[in-house]
Amino acid sequence: MASGQQFDAGHLAGFEISSTNLLNVDLLGGISIRTYLNGVEQETSNANNLLLNVGALGGTSRGVMGFITTKPFDEVQFRISTLLNLNLLGSTRIHNMIVKKLCLGSAPSCNVDTRIVAPTYPAVVQQIRTGTGGVTVASISNSNNVVNSDINDYASINITAAVAGTATLSVASGQQFNAGYFAGFEISNANLLNVNLLGGISIRTYLNGVEQETSTSNSLLLNVGVLGSAPRSVVGFVTTKPFDEVQFRMSTLLSVDLLGETRIYNMIVKQFCEGPAFACNTNTLIGKNQYPVSIGNNTGVTGIATVGNIVDIDHILDNDPLTYASINIPVGALSTATIAIHKQLTPFSVGAYVSFDVEFTSLINVAVLPKLKLRLLRNNAQVGIIEGSNFLLGANVATNIRKTLGFKAPAAFDEIQLIYEQPVGISLGTIKIYDLYLLNPCQNPIDCSTNHPIENTPTHPVVINQFKTGLEGIVCALCSVSNSQNLISPSTTDYATLSLGIGVAGKAGISVLDLTNIYPTGTNVGFTIADVVGIVKLDLLETFFIKTYLNGNLQETIAGTDLLDLSLLGIINVGTGQTNYGFKTTKPFNEVKFEISSLASVINTINIYNLKIDVSNPTANDGNLICQNNVCVKQGDFSTAGIPSTGIGISSLASPRSTWPADVPNGFVVLESKDKGFVISRVSNPANVLQPQEGMLIYDTSASCIKLYNGATWKCISKSCNE
Q1: What angle do CA 531, 533, 535 make, to 5 degrees?
Q2: d(CA 261, CA 167)
Q3: What's the pLDDT score for residue 335?
Q4: pLDDT, tens only, 521-569
Q5: Beta strand pairing status for 138-141 and 300-303?
Q6: Which secondary structure element, helix H or strand E, spans residue 609, and what is its range?
Q7: How far apart are CA 22 and CA 131, in angstroms?
Q8: Is residue 208 a contact partner of residue 49, using CB atoms and an 8 Å limit?
Q9: CA 77, CA 67: separation in Å to the nearest integer?
Q10: What long-range pairs does 78-85 form, CB within 8 A, spacing at least 24?
Q11: What is the pLDDT of residue 193?
């Protein structure tokens, strides 16, 4: 059909058709559409890459069949092969030639699930790759709802038998998206109760009708509300090739009882972008709309019977501290639940402190408790792991416990996993996981001239290491560790409490981890303890233990009479009714744990106010402290008598004084300005300076200080007496 005018490349060219007997899109193989310009053939598109937007082929409704042109045209031809069985085709009606100008949608916003729907995007259902295959045991209805602007409309895939076959639904976006974008669909399924049951789902991408890549359940990402109820889920993968079409595929080998109706709402595309930089020493909530993170494909429940489920997984990344995901594994199930958070683009940095906010709602006093782990991976290979269960022992059955489970990364990582291992016969009921946080520790100078408490402050991040905090080897209803966070509170009146029953075989402890500082050999370290009325100090001392660690590895354990009353020695001062027990270390450390054991005749209850250190007299230079001592600073001598004048001056002032710079004594070069500063070289790592010279200055952007090269090493400049 000649149009009488020329249309540019990029238009949709086709026809509005209907056919009473064309019951299956698989029968469209003999149809093609061809364009011409001034009688000269331009291009042909056949069934493999034709776009078909229909209501219900096989009825009387009409559909538009065509393709997006790459050359200008003024004529469009509909062609149908007579090789097809005429009884199958029947009467095919050609109603109108259709030309549609397609306007590209805007690039998806960073880290936001973007719906590819018309008219925002030139999206259509690609009916050529939509339908059923194999044994016909499924039906697809209302496919066009996937691309309309009503986000509550949906297409339906209904599985009718558990035999071999597939059901597919494909959406052509009308524009190309780059490799590295997320591609998938928003779906829901009323009977799909467990993320582990996604084995029959895959997502496939195309470009110009040519298949690009397929991701199956083993590598799909799943951001899910409650699989098994009305809330929706986004399932897809991060592409490695460009694409302009995405197909949802479901295997009908799965049981009909498991699948039932699957609703497909919209095609989803997401552009991953790096989020805002992490501020120093600030606990930052990791949300999927700010950072390129998603639920990883290692998420699920495994085990002999694979009993239990994980629901509301996406709440971990929804930026709402009040919502949570839940792990539910019944009593008697030997199962492991894993929640994996994966980061795209660049990995999280080494040294970052990453943590989950976790609440346990049903606790039992038992000897064998479920184990929890935090596991870090890089390119799917483990780079760090921490585990424990002692912090759950002795908990009150009627009391919920909410803890921060964290790990200082020993290496860069792109995935963190929270792993819950439940043994047979035990259950913690519902475990709630609220949010994921990341803290970027930045080291700041400390006063090394005197003792001071180790407190969590904006300039000095320290945390309670919950994996080393709690009861060890104890089954005891009267034993507990409470208010452990008070140990690092800046308040002088807050305290943590450790309590053990009479003659209990076991220990209770609290461990404090410094995220930035390594304290050198010869540091005096101790805990401030409230004196216990009615117990002889020597007897009490025999129940105390102090352990030091370096990057998680035990350094030393000091116990009993080897611990000193540091306040009597004048090293560390404490208040009335308190004693500071500690020792002088023989190895460097960045973590300290205080433990108590049981007394034979009385309940041992200890109140601990804080951890104190004194690094004024170390015996080795094996730490990393940046000391800024509270020492004298004497005013400089600005008298001119006998002191040479300065001969060189650089000024931004329009009219410097006539005596300048000669009236500035004892200088070589003088800089002068009312509104400008002097900036020296900024270096993120002093090791990058290949040939440092003695006296060289730089500003170390990682350490946030000016450093001087003394001929052997770089040192932050700190104030001292300038005599």
Answers
A1: 90
A2: 12
A3: 80
A4: 999 998 888 877 655 566 667 788 999 999 999 999 998 878 877 664 4
A5: unpaired
A6: strand 604-614
A7: 13
A8: yes
A9: 12
A10: 78/1, 78/15, 78/17, 78/31, 78/33, 79/31, 79/32, 79/33, 79/34, 80/30, 80/31, 81/29, 81/30, 81/31, 81/32, 82/30, 83/30, 84/27, 84/29, 84/30
A11: 41
Q: Render pLDDT for 209-236 as a digit per residue (tens, 0 to 9).
A: 899 999 886 667 665 443 334 467 788 8
pTM of the model: 0.75
**Residue whose structure tokens are 């208010």:** 483
Under 8 Å CB-to-CB from 710, ≥6 apart: which residues? 694
Q: Which two tokens stand for residue 635?
A: 């005013």
Q: Is the pLDDT of residue 686 over 50?
A: yes
The DSSP code for 540 is: H
Contacts of residue 654, defined as CB under 8 A and 6 or more positions apart, other chains included, come to none
pLDDT of 195 above 60: no
Give the separation between CA 124 and CA 63, rounded to whole angstroms.
11
Pairing relation of β-strands 243-251 and 201-207?
Answer: antiparallel
Residue 303: both structure tokens together: 């085990």
- Residue 408 tokens, joined: 């200082």
pLDDT of residue 227: 37
**DSSP letter for each residue of 657-682:** -TTTTTTSBT-SEEEE-SS------E
Which carries the bigger pLDDT value, residue 67 or residue 353?
353
How far is it, in rounded angstroms, from Cα 214 to Cα 246? Answer: 10
Please check the confidence at residue 295 and state whether its pLDDT lies above 50. Answer: yes
Spatial CB neighbours of 624, under 8 Å, sequence gap ≥ 6:
443, 517, 518
